[in-house]
Amino acid sequence: MDLNSIYTELIMEHSSSKHNRRSLENPNVCEKGHNPSCGDEISLELKFNGDIIEDMAFTGQGCAISQASTSIMIDLIKGKNKEEAMKLVETFIGMIKREITDDETLEVLEDAFVFKNISNMPARVKCAVIAWHTLKEAIK
């Protein structure tokens, strides 16, 4: 099995997974993200405990890439504090923009690393980053 098929499998698994797709009871923040170019719409809900992102979920619709990226991001970010979360968002966006290419630096992204080569498909970049930009706004 080559790397691409492992990536594809992970993306498909997350895009159909429901474990992060739900509404939170009494979220502290609800931030909407929209990608007009392919109709992705997500609504991110966050629950903070002080500085810690205690819980996070999303609802919405869109292509497999946007949905998988959102789900993978939630798995990665949940339990982190705001500062750690922002660093991860910057790292992810840096990876997509090819500003960060060092695999060791990118290890912190865990499963989100599967989106590294999406920069080769410019039309899909917005799909991959919508959730991350939305999270950035939510934390602000």
Automatic annotation (TrEMBL):
GO terms for biological process: iron-sulfur cluster assembly. The lineage of its organism: Bacteria, Bacillati, Bacillota, Clostridia, Eubacteriales. It comes from Clostridium gasigenes. It comes from the Bacteria. Belongs to the NifU family. Residues 7-94 form the NIF system FeS cluster assembly NifU N-terminal domain. This is Modular FeS cluster scaffolding protein NifU. InterPro entries: NIF_FeS_clus_asmbl_NifU_N. SUPFAM superfamilies: SufE/NifU (SSF82649).
